[in-house]
Amino acid sequence: MTFLQFAYKNVTRNKRAYLAFFLSSAFSVLIFFTFAMFLFHPALKEGYLNNIAKKGLTAAEWMIFVFSILFVLYSINAFLKSRNKEFGILLIQGITPGQLRVLVTAENMIIGALSVIAGIIGGLIFSKTFFTIGAYILEMEALPLYMPWKALGITVGGFLFLFFLLSQFTIFFIRSKTIIKLIKGTEKIKPEPKPSIILSIFGIACLAAGYGMVVKGNVHGLEPVIILLLTIIGTYFFFSQSSIWILRALKKWKTFYLRGKNVIWISDLVYRLKDNARLFFMVSIISAVAFTATGVLVKYKSTVGSMDSAFEMEYLSYGGNKKEQTHLQEIEHNLEKGHFQYAREDIKSSYIRYKQGGSVPPVIMMDETQLAKHFNISLDKLKDGEGIYFPNTFEGNSKNEVPHQLNLLNQKQKLSNQKLTVKEVKDPLISINSIIAVNEKTYNDLEKLGESTKLFGYKFDGWKDSLGISQSMKNRFYGDYSDVNFDFATKADTYYVRVQLPSLSLFIGLFIAIVFFTAAGSFLYFRLFTDLEEDQQRYRSLAKIGLSDKEMSQSVTIQLAILFFFPFAVAVLHTLFAMKTLEVEGFSDVMKPLFMTIGGFLAFQILFFLMVRTSYLKKIKGFLTIK
Questions:
Q1: Are 497 and 481 in contact (CB under 8 A)?
Q2: Whether 356 and 211 share a structural domain
Q3: SS3 of 425, please?
Q4: C-beta separation of 461 from 342 below 8 A
Q5: What does each C-alpha distance from 611 to 15, 111, 356, 607 come to in angstroms?
Q6: Which terminus of the chain has a lower count of CB atoms within 10 Å, N or C?
Q7: Considering the domain boundaries, does residue 276 fall inside one?
Q8: Element (H or E) spanning 388, and its range?
Q9: Domain ABC3 transporter permease C-terminal spans what residues (predicted)?
């Protein structure tokens, strides 16, 4: 038998233990490969949004690959630890360190190669669906299929090199141990965990302090950083100290602890929590970040509103703007160069400010005749001192309250005795600023309070294709922000910031969160199978003294449920308080998208839990039937 055949038989004989590693690795390869296919798609070669999408996808690729390094390293270590006794026997039989290196490398390369093949096949099968979802979320044109040679080469080369490199690295964990230690494996008796009462209380106190600051609304200045630090520190000590302290307290509650199967799962869980404290901490923090980020993006995506501006480009020129004609000429030159057929509207207006609490918001005052001429809107007869308020598109989407009466300021920004009564608030007209329409007499009376301005509006079709020139002109116009006597806004840029960029972030963040979440569940699976042999021996001993199959199944189910859903529950709690800060900051109805997000991850977690439970119980019961 050759070493390659020996390695192959080792993999096939332990296929159930290797299954989670294989599936998770294949899933990481699938996500990486599909992102790479999207990244190198010929349709993304040109265009401002496409360049931003490529940068985001490139960052996602690196994040997935770096996380894959940590994931594969942890996975390989878990399997090597479970096979310590086997390696010890091989060393006694005369295998050399070099041959052991070849064996471990061959095994991991077999799993790695199969994972890469499965991931690439899965990526090719689901590529059309992935392209369709990506194009829909990013609101791009449908992306056709193509042969992704570049993505294929990077994926195969990168992941095979990763598996090979980490195989060489992990061999040192075996060589650093003596043969006796290897043969003993995980059989040495572990002392019962004894948590520190002080650290246990400290962990709970940190979490309580962080949550308390959120409830009180202290989320300004340095408070968010303090809350984050308290949460991270509190979470670590909660898993490593407080949770064990709580279980030890349950053991002292004799009427509960000595009732049926409770004595088994509580005793086992004390050791499992201690062994997996850092893993639970990491899973909780990663999951909380995934839940919060996805929930925020879903909420933001659902509240961006429409781009209901009457113009595709808006240029507001204030008095003394020496660059007005230069800028207008450049706008028109770029539109002509981009083959946009445009129409220009020149609108006379006055730029005024009013007192609202501690702020002085600006508003564009416009004669109702200008409104009828340029926006084709006829208003009911307005009385003197009355106005119709048209918020800008951002104000309209955020549903900010408009005061019933505007206390106007003069040109020196001092409170005047002039007031405007807001008769009605209507839908936005432009994005560059809010508008208040008044009758001709009121406009003439109040015009001197503000600054004479002129609004230039450009209308043209195909405005989404103007993002590149919009960004280019915006950067040139504002330069170093000195001598700025104008405002410039485009529908394409506003749409990009409010819709396309959050959509891109949601698209990338969702898949990265899924990768992280899948890996977190796999970590728990690996830890369980690392201790499988020890658990089999323990349950065999318990079966001999009368433990029934039903009681064993219940004990295992309770333990697995706590291992899988305890970090999940802590992550959900962190996420709820994180979203609470958004409510304090003025976001409304954040719970619906949050529960949708958590519900999706919970369904995935339940499915994974059921699969692991079935596999684990089958292994335990199969061992018990062996005479």
A1: no
A2: no
A3: strand
A4: no
A5: 15, 21, 59, 6
A6: C
A7: yes
A8: strand 386-390
A9: 63-178
Query: Are the CB atoms for 105 and 162 separated by under 8 Å?
Result: no
User: What's the CA gap between 294 and 299, in Å, rounded?
Assistant: 8
* 483, part of any domain: no
pLDDT of residue 69: 76
Angstrom distance (rounded) from CA 397 to CA 110: 54
Tell me whether residue 474 is in a domain.
no
Assess whether 233 and 337 both reside in one domain: no
Instruction: Say what the pLDDT of residue 274 is.
Output: 75
Contacts of 110 (CB under 8 A, 6+ apart): 7, 8, 11
Averages of pLDDT over each 10 residues, the chain, 627 residues: 70 68 78 82 68 74 77 67 68 73 80 89 85 74 81 90 78 55 52 79 90 75 80 89 81 70 70 75 79 71 63 91 92 93 92 84 89 84 88 66 84 83 87 90 88 92 87 87 84 81 74 72 70 74 76 81 85 83 60 77 86 82 69
User: Which of residues 153, 188, 223 is at a domain's end?
Assistant: 188
What the block records as the tokens of 333 is 């030159």
- Distance (Å, rounded) from C-alpha 81 to C-alpha 86? 10
**Of the candidates 305, 333, 323, which has an alpha carbon nearest to the alpha carbon of residue 458?**
333
For residue 174, the model assigns a pLDDT of 57
Considering the domain architecture, whether residues 79 and 111 belong to the same structural domain is answered as yes
Read off the tokens for 237: 């000590």
- Please spell the DSSP secondary structure of 61-126, one letter per residue: HHHHHHHHHHHHHHHHHHHHHHTHHHHHHHHHTT--HHHHHHHHHHHHHHHHHHHHHHHHHHHHHH
Q: Are residues 298 and 337 in the same domain?
A: no
Sorted by sequence, the CB contacts under 8 Å of residue 171 that are 6+ apart come out as: 100, 101, 104, 105
Predicted TM-score (pTM) of the model is 0.66
For residue 425, which of 477, 363, 478 has the smallest C-alpha distance?
Answer: 363
Q: Exposure string (b/e) for 289-300, b if CB count within 10 Å is 16 or more?
A: bbbbbbbbbbbb
Structure tokens at 450: 């503000």
99 backbone φψ class: left, alpha, beta (φ>0; ψ -120 to 50):
alpha
> What pLDDT sits at residue 146?
81
Looking at 154, 173, 188, the residue that finishes a domain is 188
Which 3 state secondary structure label does DSSP give 362?
A: strand
Considering the domain architecture, whether residues 153 and 140 belong to the same structural domain is answered as: yes
Amino acid making up residue 151 = A
- Number of domains present in the structure of the chain: 3
> Is residue 178 located within the same domain as residue 209?
no
Give the whole-angstrom CA distance, residue 42 versus residue 141.
13
Per the domain annotation, does 147 fall within a domain? yes
Angle subtended at Cα 589 by Cα 583 and Cα 592, rounded to the nearest 5 degrees: 120
Same domain for 596 and 528, yes or no, is yes
Domain housing 64: 1-188
* DSSP summary character for residue 143: P
CA-nearest of 353, 339, 349 to 315 is 349
Mention every residue, 6+ apart, whose C-beta is less than 8 A from residue 257. Answer: 250, 251, 263, 266
Q: What is the pLDDT of residue 457?
A: 93
How many angstroms separate the CA atoms of 474 and 478, rounded? Answer: 6
> How long, in residues, is the chain?
627
Cβ–Cβ < 8 Å for 71, 520? no
Place of tokens 């302090």: 209
**Rounded alpha-carbon distances, angstroms, from residue 392 to 343, 362, 367:** 21, 11, 17
Whether 500 and 622 map to the same domain: the answer is: yes
pLDDT of residue 260: 64
The CA-atom distances, in angstroms, between 60 and each of 118, 162, 332, 517, 544 are 21, 17, 38, 15, 53
Task: Specify the amino acid at residue 596.
Answer: M
